[in-house]
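Example complex used in Figure S2.
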Amino acid sequence: MLKLTRRELLAGAGAATALSFAQLADARGLLLEPLLDDVVAAALAAAAKAKATYADVRIVRRRQEVIQTREDHVTGVESHQSYGVGVRVIAGGAWGFAASSRVDPKEAARVATLAAETALADSKLLKRPVELAPEPTHVDVWQTPLSKDPFKIPVDQKVELLLAINAEILKVPGVKFANSSVESLGEWKLFASSEGSYIEQNVIRIGPTVRATAIDAKTGEFVSRDHPIQPMQAGWEYIEAARLVADGRRMGEDAVAKLKAPSVEPGKRDLVLSPEHLYLTIHESVGHPTELDRAMGYEANFAGTSFATPDKRNKLKYASTAVTLYADKTTPGGLATCGYDDDGVQTGRWDLVKDGIFVGYQTTREQASWIGEKRSRGTSYAEDFKSFPFQRMPNVSLQPAQSDVRLEQLLAGVDDGIYIEGAGSYSIDHQRYNFQFGGQVFHAIKKGKLAGPLKDVAYHSNTVDFWNRCEAVGGRSSWKLCGALHDGKGEPTQSNAVSHGCPPALFRGIEVLNTNRRRQS
Amino acid sequence: MRELKNPEALISSVFAAAKRLNPDAQVLVKLGSTSAGNLRFARGEVTSTGDADDETVSVTIQVGKRRAVGTANQVDAATVRDTVERAYRLAKISPEDPEVMPVLGPQKYLTAPSAFDPASDRLSAEHRASAVESALGVAKSAGEDLDLAGYFERQSLAQTIATSAGARAGHRLTRVRLSTTARTSDGTGSGWAAAHSQRASEVKPAELARRAVDKATRSRKPRPLAPGRYTVVLEPAAVAEMLNALSFQLPARLADEGRSFFAAPGGGTRVGEKLFSEKITLRSDPADAAAPSAPFDDEGMPLKPTTWIESGKLLALSYTRFWAQKMGKAPTGQHASWQLGAGDASLEALISGVKRGLLVTRFWYTRTLDPQTLLLTGLTRDGLFLIENGQVVAPVNNFRYNESVAQMLKNVDAVGSERVRLPAWPGILVPALRSREFNFASVSEAV
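Predicted assembly (968 residues):
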């Protein structure tokens, strides 16, 4: 095929996209274009010379800005950045990887050679050589669609917003503390492979947090309420569109109400879970179990394995027929959304659980053939230049119902239950069976209606049993994209940002616990 | 390791760049360099590997009560200048932070034993491959169908802290760690073992593999056991995971503000109260020979040996400089290492004192359920065994626990004599513990 150099591609792109290329140039920082081409060329040549049969080079610049406040003042303003070059090779059938923070052709050649030597040293510990599923070569650019680059919004403007939110929260009697923060993450990377792919991407993510804490001075009891706003792949316009200041008072009132709420009676209940809560349950009980490397034992020494083994594919009734869960690296705003993964594979969407049946896995180029698939699903990711790319979770979402079921309709079907909003404590075993989740705000449901706040609630279940108890899910208008900026996996642990979209959903007969030990101590 | 060529010149250039921007700016510079390499293996073969060298320069600029931090991982003149300018620009437009304290002047630091082992610096790829090969060899020769997975890592780290007011501190360390998990092919047995040391010679791959394989084969076909309260013998990894949650509660401010286990009802802290078993003593000492660490914190404060809990009594909480000044206390610095006092019992002796209970290899996915009571939840994994009449009699199914670390420490009746550090919590040095009435809430089918 005709291969364009990146420079030719950029030159040919024309004036229509000039603005976005200006954004890309800005994201590269001090890295100059001719240098990048030279670094790539030096690394690929050195890898080939050192007997690598495949090589890819990633030059990555990461930026992170964190602003934190409490009550009436700022407590932290930090701006971090890192860049460097990582070279991954296959030599002697084994992976090799080396990285350096010095981005120059000589250093790139050194790390490429080291990567190949390491691969050859390790190849004696190999049972079967690494094979990559075929992928067309891609020469392309991709970037987060945004209108306001958060790194260009002045810090004082951000602080002003956060302090205004805190002030609203503190207007509520009984609220003692208010904390808020905003984190901006910029990830620019250039991927080039010995197969001819040449891909430049710039991803911008933003994550605000807001917390109100109320304390009962007499008993010493304290509770917190976090704002339901979610991290998103977006610009500052996302923050501007949120009604954070207007919501401040409600956060404070929720915290005080929770403090005064009756403690839950344990027992089996019907649960209606809000999207801001359910996303984390999806993450833990569907996202991680359907990672193919986990299922095959590759994470056995750390995060564990998975009950969802390949022999159960197309057989296991993972969930009720109301449930279809899909992976999608193209969801607009999704934290794991991008044009290409870190194997250079074009991203897409596919089902993991369809109408209740377990049907799919998350794969990389190395893994596709393990389950007889011809092409990778495109889920390879490395946190930064010095991290080895491996299988990471795409956005995993719950499909809404075809008819437009509203939250009120789900509640109406519950005689005695609990409606849970927001994410709380979460814990799941190393094969993803037994889990226990808390939440932010709990409401009793009596005869189809919300009937006042509760506290000290957690629920416990088993993944397959839980999802088979899902009776109904909300419709499209109730679907919301939620997520986490930092999900850990692997050794050394790498962070990955991932979103989960879902409507509220109704689960029948789930075991509810009371987490209050104060009465006992 | 790859050291920064001339750190003093780099520090001077940061101070000079800051001074040009504002002669009154106070500056805290932190320089770090890291060299790390690893090898992962699973299903009895190598799965990935990596070597990385990196540097960081972190610049904190204070102008009056305004403060900001800029970091970069490049040490060329242009990037350093850009980082100083970025920090200054952010500081200038940041609102005043009433909690900002002046940067520290010259300090005296205690002399800690070296945490840097030259023989463990820059271990080669061949060394890693050989270490892992010997572990895999143990699994292969065990005569069973076992899958061995694991992670070997070497790190060399150096850090220097300097302030424009004259504080200077430096620390170097090496880390070598290996953890390994053996799983039986029938999927019913799993065992784990790990070691962490500054010296590669103390991390013994074959020995660790033997322990993991032994646990895996002995934990096969677990007996069903109902959840409930049991006496437990917690091996050091299980203790470290729970203690880690407790360490986050030590700041006095959390207690003074009424949001910690150490807050007294009605106000104040619980310092002086006997909260735990008299067998529990918790200290931080950077000079502890078994776990040497940097004798200074992130802003250059000297870290002195401190006893937090002595014979079960809460003696002290930690104070930042700001909170110490506000409360009229002495600042403690921000400790990053904790040592739980050793007892006199071998693991066998801990087990032999149990009429009916459980031996816990380790916990997994521990999270706080209620910060006020330090109620945690998590799961057992990689070897849970029933003890009857002082003997380990059978493997049992895994459990989820819902138990307070404070309650667990209160119920301790015996402490192990051998203390270890583990890869996940390099700052924590712990023995095994025996504790009564530990609450297992539900069964986990996971193996």
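Residues 272 and 314 of chain B are 5 Å apart (CA to CA). Residues 77-93 of chain B form the longest helix (17 residues).
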